[in-house]
Specification:
331 residues, alpha/beta, five-stranded parallel sheet, 24% strand
Length: 331
């Protein structure tokens, strides 16, 4: 019986255009160390900067594999899947961990077809049991928690943000940097990006990565001001139900649910949210669920850790005011 994999554990190092690591990567590195020897995978011939290498060493990365895509666009999922398939085969990798974003889930699926790997997406944990990767995930709109054992030699697991508490190692490593030229298949080059438009930046954290999410539903009647003020004082993101986005009260990129963003924050606050099955499927893995609704029969109270029956426009401003008072007192 062993609780570590024999082959390397690859972790896809998602990073911003300026080269900084995205926050969930540190969670993946923490989980990856529990599985075996961690290799960070960096897409782009330029490689990570010195600060990033130091951060990777602080989280116990042994090797950073830099993939030179030969000018191909790393935003295209066929390109990424092709490159990861080649690298995993060359290294004899036992597992690949990546953040469970929309793009990465498509990469995981393509990689599974290409390499014959067992694939688990939207996982909340990963560990080794009897030499196999076992990943936990909720299914059926969050009503069941399952443990999925990957039976193939190579496992691909896409983990939700906030699946683990980032933990640096006691003795940092000095990762070796190894360059890998990648030869892409012709079909990976069939699509090209001809134009792109950056979204308007927000000071709030990304919805899928935030540790605190405040969500507005039908009960807001289109007024998200109280929701946004509470989110800002908590340093959280703002989400919405499908009804709110369909009504045009907020952008569709804020929609949480089975056809929207799946979240797993440490704290979820639902204001005027009924708790329909569609919405619950996207948030039920949250650590602590707080519900504010004037209807005591709302289904969300069935899964809430704390339920407040009241008007959100009365409850939320009081909570915001008290939080501001506490923060001011703390200096």
């Amino acid at each position: 019986m062993t609780n570590h994999l024999a082959g390397p554990v690859l972790v896809l190092l998602d990073h911003a255009p300026d080269g900084t690591l995205r926050a969930p990567v540190l969670e993946l590195l923490t989980l990856g160390r529990r599985l075996g020897s961690v290799h960070g995978v960096w897409l782009g011939a330029e490689g990570p900067g010195g600060d990033v290498l130091a951060a990777l060493g602080a989280y116990g990365v042994d090797v950073v594999d830099v993939l030179d895509l030969g000018g191909a666009d790393a935003r295209l999922t066929p390109v990424v899947a092709d490159a990861l398939a080649d690298l995993s085969a060359a290294l004899g990798a036992a597992a690949l961990l990546l953040t469970s974003s929309f793009d990465n889930k498509e990469v995981a699926g393509r990689l599974g077809v290409r390499s014959g790997a067992g694939v688990v997406v939207d996982a909340s944990d990963a560990r080794v049991v009897d030499g196999r990767v076992v990943a936990d995930k909720t299914v059926l709109a969050g009503t069941w928690t399952t443990s999925c054992a990957v039976r193939t030699p190579f496992a691909v697991v896409a983990l939700k943000a906030n699946s683990a508490q980032p933990e640096p190692v006691a003795s940092p490593t000095q990762p070796a940097v190894v360059a890998h030229p990648v030869t892409l298949a012709d079909d990976a080059r069939q699509a090209v990006v001809v134009e792109r438009q950056e979204r308007t930046r927000s000071d709030r954290p990304a919805l899928g990565e935030a540790q605190v999410v405040v969500v507005g539903g039908r009960g807001t009647d289109g007024d998200f001001s109280a929701v946004e003020e509470l989110a800002d004082v908590l340093g959280g993101a703002v989400g919405a139900t499908r009804v709110a986005t369909d009504e045009g009260w907020i952008g569709h990129d804020a929609q949480i649910g089975q056809t929207g963003v799946t979240i797993a924050p440490r704290l979820y606050i639902g204001a005027g949210v009924s708790g329909a099955v569609h919405h619950r499927g996207g948030m039920q893995a949250s650590g602590v669920i707080v519900a504010v609704n004037s209807d005591p029969e709302s289904p969300i109270f069935e899964i809430a850790d704390l339920g407040i029956v009241g008007d959100l426009f009365t409850v939320l401003p009081q909570a915001t005011q008290e939080l501001r008072r506490i923060k001011a007192a703390q200096g």
